[in-house]
Each structure stands twice: as structure tokens, then as C-alpha cells.
Design brief:
The chain folds into two domains: about 150 residues, no CATH class; about 110 residues, Zincin-like, CATH 3.30.2010. It is about 35% helix and about 15% strand. It has eight helices and ten strands. It has a five-stranded mixed beta sheet, covered by helices on one side. Strands 6-8-7 form a three-stranded mixed beta sheet, covered by helices on one side. It is elongated and about 60 Å long. The two termini are about 35 Å apart.
Length: about 270
């Protein structure tokens, strides 16, 4: 195989595409660009040399393999994403520019995770936890949302579908479960009839997208209502970061979810899609 690639942000792609749970796939926009200088912590005008870090990890993993040429760049992804690939004997590493000022210990952990995924080896728990603790900090979460909002694109087709109107159902749910006080985000049907991503709330773009698999007369309305209600709860209960953990569905979220009269039936229905 002439080229292998792995990305932190999962599904296989080109034989070696892998993702770190909790992160989004790397997205490129017209604004995305490679930073040709690697900035350091003390002096932002002095190039930051990450070669020794990645070289040391490579020697640890492949002690009998010649060290390839390694090119490392900070890159303006639309998400917190990092990629590494082998191409014609050269290792190309792109690191999100959000980590330009990260401590050396965090970049060491990232090097361990990236390179071990490239060579299909498990990363030690201490490296994964160190990396997650850093990116799950409140200020980092705010920066991630900011770059997603400014660099990313969100394709919205609108709330009015062929069979169902998301705005109508949202208004009914808001009155029934939130006293009509939950602010309404942008509502839209997705671009495709996805069975894997049924719906999601995107806080960065303040939007709820629902798969078109629910937009047909044969789909029970109460099932769609449950799916939309679940996403509305993400507005009421934002993701919490506790050390290396991301609390997406905390106990209070789950308690509210069970207020939906037919939640058990809905969950069983969704598992059969």
C-alpha cells in the first residue's frame, strides 16, 4: 500500500481512516489553509520544532524501521481535527491550529495517539486521558465552537418536509414539555435518508437536523416527535466536560427523556430502522 492515512476526529477510509471518539471528521473549507510556521509557546515568532517528538514515538513503535521524513504543519481545519499519512516514504502530519499553544506533554500524547492509530496499535490510556482532559476544558470547548461556526458550513434545507413540518412538532413539544420557553434553533431536514445519523443538535450553528428517513407518511408521527424531543433536550442540557469525560446524556437528561410517554416504544422502533 503506497499511502496510509489516519485522522483523529469512525469509519475506515482508503484502508486506514480512523477517528477518535467524540470528535468530528476533518472538514475543509475555502478558508482552511496550512500554517507554514510552527509557532512555539514562549516566542510566537519562533518556529516550533515537533520533529523530535514524533521521531521519538516512531523509534519506540518501529525500532527496526528507518525513520521516514516527517513534515508537520498546523492546519486551519473547520473542526478540532488532526491527520497523519504515509505517502511514498514520507510522513505528513497536520495538527489543528487550535493546539498551536498546547503544552509539550499534550502534543506528546497527540503524537502517541496519531502514530499508534496509523500503525494500528492501541494508545496507552494515560495519553488518551491527557489529550482529552486538555481538549475538554471549558475554554477549549468554546474555541472549538467558535471555529466551527466561522469556518464550517451547515447545509440547511428547511423544516418543511414532504410529510411532516418540524416547526409544527417543535412548537407542540415546547408547549408540552418546556412551558414554551425553550428557544427555537434553526430546524432542518437532512440532505439524505440516513439510518446512522438520525438527528443531531449542532450548538455551533444553533441548528437541529433530522434525517429524511422520518419524512414519509408511513413513519409514525410520535416516533419523529420523540427524536426531535431528544435533540431539544440537548439544548436544555448542554454537554458537560468533567476532566477527561464528556457528559452528553447526564442523569437529568435521561430523567427528562423518560417524560416522553412512549419513549420505550420509540427506542425499540429506532433500533429496528
Amino acid at each position: 500500500m503506497s499511502e496510509r492515512e489516519t485522522s483523529l476526529t469512525g469509519r475506515m477510509k482508503d484502508g486506514a481512516q480512523l477517528y477518535l471518539p467524540g470528535l468530528q471528521p476533518p472538514a475543509r473549507t475555502a478558508r482552511s489553509r496550512t500554517k507554514t510556521r510552527l509557532y512555539g509557546l514562549a516566542d510566537p515568532n519562533k518556529p516550533r520544532d515537533l520533529y523530535p517528538t514524533f521521531a521519538a514515538v516512531h523509534r519506540e513503535l518501529k525500532p527496526r524501521t528507518p525513520l521516514p521524513k516527517i513534515e508537520i504543519r498546523f492546519y486551519a481545519f473547520a473542526h478540532l481535527s488532526h491527520t497523519i499519512r504515509l505517502r511514498e516514504g514520507k510522513m505528513l502530519v497536520r495538527i489543528s491550529d487550535l493546539l498551536e499553544s498546547a503544552p509539550e506533554t499534550v502534543l506528546e500524547a497527540l503524537a502517541q495517539i496519531l502514530m499508534r492509530k496509523l500503525y494500528r496499535k492501541p494508545a496507552a490510556a494515560r495519553y488518551v486521558e491527557r489529550y482529552r482532559r486538555y481538549i475538554n476544558r471549558r475554554e477549549m470547548a468554546a474555541r472549538i465552537e467558535t471555529i466551527r461556526r466561522h469556518r464550517g458550513r451547515k447545509r440547511l434545507s428547511g423544516p418543511h418536509g414532504a410529510a411532516y413540518d418540524l416547526e409544527e412538532i417543535y412548537t407542540e413539544l415546547n408547549a408540552a414539555y418546556f412551558h414554551g420557553l425553550l428557544p427555537q434553533p434553526r430546524l432542518s431536514w437532512g440532505q439524505v435518508r440516513s439510518r446512522h445519523n438520525l438527528a443531531h443538535f449542532d450548538a455551533a450553528h444553533n441548528a437541529i437536523l433530522v434525517s429524511r428517513i422520518f419524512d414519509h407518511p408511513g413513519m409514525p408521527r410520535w416516533v419523529l416527535a420523540y427524536v426531535l424531543y431528544h435533540e431539544m433536550l440537548h439544548i436544555k442540557h448542554p454537554i458537560r466536560h468533567e476532566g477527561a469525560r464528556r457528559r452528553i446524556h447526564p442523569p437529568e437528561f435521561q430523567a427528562d427523556e423518560r417524560r416522553f410517554p412512549r419513549w420505550r416504544e420509540a427506542e425499540a422502533f429506532l433500533k429496528k430502522l
